[in-house]
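Run log, item B.
One chain of 455 residues. Sequence copied directly from the ordering sheet:
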Amino acid sequence: MPDGSEKPAMFASRSLTKTEHNYSQIDKEALSIVWGVKRFHQYLFGRHFDLVTDHKPLVSIFAPNRSLPCLSATRMIHYALFLQAFSYTIKYRNTKNHGNADALSRLPLAVDRDCEYLTEADVTNILQAELMPVTATDIARSTKTDRKLFELYESLKSGTELPVPWKGRESEFSLQNGCIMYGHRVCIPEKYQNQVLEELHVGHPGIVKMKAIARSYCYWQGIDASIANFVQNCSACIATRNEPARINRHPWEWPNGPWQRIQVDYAGPFMGKMFFVVSDAYSKWIEVIPMKNITASFTIHHFRILFAHYGIPLTLVSDNGASFTSYEFRHFLKLNNIKHITSAPYHPATNGQAERIVQLFKASLKSSRGDSADLNVKLQRFLLQYRITPHSLTGETPSALFLRRCIRTRLDLFKPNLRDKVVQKQSSRLDTESILREFREGEKVAVRNYSGPNK
């Protein structure tokens, strides 16, 4: 312990075998050290420990920094070689002060056996060992002693009426080599039901598949319930089971107009930069801004620019990042009377619109890696293309809903010029309405006089 005191973690002792009784005293003392190290191997291996003995010659013999002479006893050499696998410091303690270990040597176990007793680890390994398969002989033997199947067995053997649980089903049961058959399936005694379930569950099939396998081989009353309960309590199956069906998610209410609710998120580090993503919930209009850093003050700076362009929104949705939950940012929203909604921790789907924009934006830039254009150029191309693409939810382009007009792109060059068409129509109409009139020389004509009071 840190204060120098000793606290026992475990005690162990054993009696000497007939052969070990004939060892010399030094060999017996060495045996106790080696046996103790083996016994507490799981606590000692891989760490440095103190080895205390009241037999002083062993301090020199088992010292880690010394080797034994070539002519040493073979048994002692074997002990020394075994201890070399451990990191320890051997110390001598007088027998008077060695009572915590010496007392056990004076209380030998009244068991005379050559093998060492099993440890908890040994018992665990035995319990985990693969069970022997159940055979027809085992089933026939246990059927005669099973409390549920014995009456059925006797009735089938004597040809009398079957007991109540199986009454009226005589044609379904038969005897074959001492085993009760239910159709082509063997009736399993209660003793072997768990073992049969283990065998049916090799490979960890689900409930339905496990029932299908069982219907080809075995039967007992309530086998379907036993299979369902077994699979539902299998720790390996639970660990790999699919998530339960999701409940109906509550969608966000659609705003009444553009820039009333905006959803924001940070993307990155991506391509060596962080990106600030802003999405309008009404029109699906997006802004993606490369950021030098993502502090609250820098975030507020870019919000001021956006608010100068589009105005102040009613609601802002974000995750729980430090940039959005700091006092400075919350104070900024309060000054502008903006309601702040944060997504549930570890549930980014709450802010799903912004998360989806991040995925689309990253996928677009990854796809354009072969393009030699600058990153900012690629980003602006993505934004322009996104803003003129009809959204699957609204059926309209983000620009049409946000700006109330369709923005012009190079794709508009494909369309004929509308202005030329209008001018042409106007000219043709004037030509139609205008009539060329011809006059003969000396013909009288009426002239409109615009001078005078009556025009």
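Observations after the first pass:
- The longest strand covers residues 261-270.
- The chain has a mean pLDDT of 83.
Flagged for discussion on Thursday.
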